[in-house]
């Protein structure tokens, strides 16, 4: 109504296209029609390795569709996450050394385990379930409700409104948006250092990180979501992900995960039981 493309609605980015390009497709940006047909799921859901304590069964998982791309990463050209920066390599080494250690308190769990946040760009990344989004826009704001981990983003489009000082760190940073033609560009900085690195579904950057997102309507039922992640303390270079957003056939529901969930208490209690059994020689 005010001249900008309409991004409003309920959307999903669930996909089986991998974040990084598999080695078998080295040097190739796209699948052939035959390769796509062979790999594209026609029915059912993917198997989920729940681990020794059990977790969700396949009923709750969303498989999504496979694109013709061999990876969601479009830059660097090899379709891989860039090598870790030296400081991040040291952090990763410490994590590997601590892997398998029993948790002592809630401090030993990350922000995603505690149902606080998946960080950015993690909150906008696809994964195994509930990667759905509700977008509402006005002439001067865009609101993005993220179903998983019940996160909400408010993006101001007022270029005369100053951003927050970088000393005020937030889980999802401070976002400012503007239109470049028919593309909504959102620049975010001012992140907390309490969620960094991670996997496809929980990627966070440090207080030195900067993220640029581009929302481009490419059809009646699709818009392209592109995000560039730049954090010299985590990666040796910036990297960019491109994925389609398609209409969600349904509604956004409450994601009732919270920091007082049963899993947190049970994991800590289980660790104490194992320790007591070892002390008793059992």
Describe the overall structure:
The structure is a single chain. By secondary structure, the protein is of the alpha+beta class. It contains three helices and ten strands; from the N terminus they run βαβαββββββββα. Strands 1, 2, 3, 4, 5, 6, 7, 8, 9 and 10 form a ten-stranded antiparallel beta sheet that branches. The longest helix is centred in the C-terminal third of the chain and has 18 residues. The protein is globular and about 70 Å long. The N and C termini lie far apart (70 Å). About 2% of the residues have low confidence.
Shape: globular
Low-confidence stretches: 42-48
How many helices does DSSP assign?
3
**Rg, Å, rounded:** 20 Å
Give the tally of β-strands.
10
* Mean model confidence by pLDDT: 86
Question: Alpha-carbon distance between the termini?
Answer: 70 Å
Largest sheet: 10 strands, antiparallel
Task: Kindly name the structural category.
Answer: alpha+beta
Order of helices and strands: EHEHEEEEEEEEH
Tell me the fraction of residues in β-strands, as a range: 15-25%
Report the helical percentage: 10-25%
Give a brief rundown of this model.
With 282 residues, this protein is α+β, with helices and mostly antiparallel strands. It contains 3 helices and 10 strands.
Would you spell out the secondary-structure blueprint of this structure?
Elements: E1 9-12, H1 33-39, E2 73-75, H2 86-98, E3 132-137, E4 141-146, E5 151-156, E6 174-180, E7 183-189, E8 210-219, E9 222-230, E10 239-247, H3 262-279
Antiparallel strand pairs: 1-3, 1-10, 2-10, 3-4, 4-5, 6-7, 7-8, 8-9, 9-10
């Amino acid at each position: 109504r005010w001249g900008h493309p309409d991004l409003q609605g309920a959307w999903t980015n669930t996909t089986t296209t991998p974040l990084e390009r598999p080695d078998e497709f080295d040097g190739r940006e796209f699948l052939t029609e035959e390769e796509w047909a062979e790999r594209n799921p026609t029915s059912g859901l993917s198997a989920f390795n729940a681990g020794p304590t059990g977790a969700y069964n396949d009923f709750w998982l969303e498989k999504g569709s496979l694109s013709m791309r061999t990876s969601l990463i479009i830059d660097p050209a090899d379709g891989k996450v860039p090598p870790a920066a030296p400081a991040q390599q040291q952090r990763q080494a410490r994590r590997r050394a601590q892997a398998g250690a029993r948790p002592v308190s809630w401090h030993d769990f990350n922000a995603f385990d505690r149902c606080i946040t998946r960080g950015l760009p993690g909150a906008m990344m696809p994964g195994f379930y509930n990667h759905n989004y509700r977008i509402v826009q006005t002439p001067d704001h865009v609101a993005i409700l993220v179903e998983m981990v019940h996160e909400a983003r408010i993006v101001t489009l007022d270029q005369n409104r100053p951003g927050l000082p970088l000393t005020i760190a937030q889980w999802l940073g401070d976002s400012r948006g503007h239109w470049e033609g028919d593309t909504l560009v959102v620049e975010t900085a001012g992140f907390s250092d309490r969620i960094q690195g991670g996997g496809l579904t929980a990627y966070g950057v440090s207080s030195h990180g900067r993220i640029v997102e581009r929302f481009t309507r490419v059809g009646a039922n699709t818009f392209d979501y592109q995000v560039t992640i730049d954090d010299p303390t985590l990666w040796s270079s910036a990297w960019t992900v491109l994925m389609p957003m398609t209409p969600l056939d349904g509604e956004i529901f409450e994601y009732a995960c919270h920091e007082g969930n049963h899993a947190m208490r049970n994991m800590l209690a289980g660790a104490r039981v194992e320790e007591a059994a070892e002390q008793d020689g059992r």
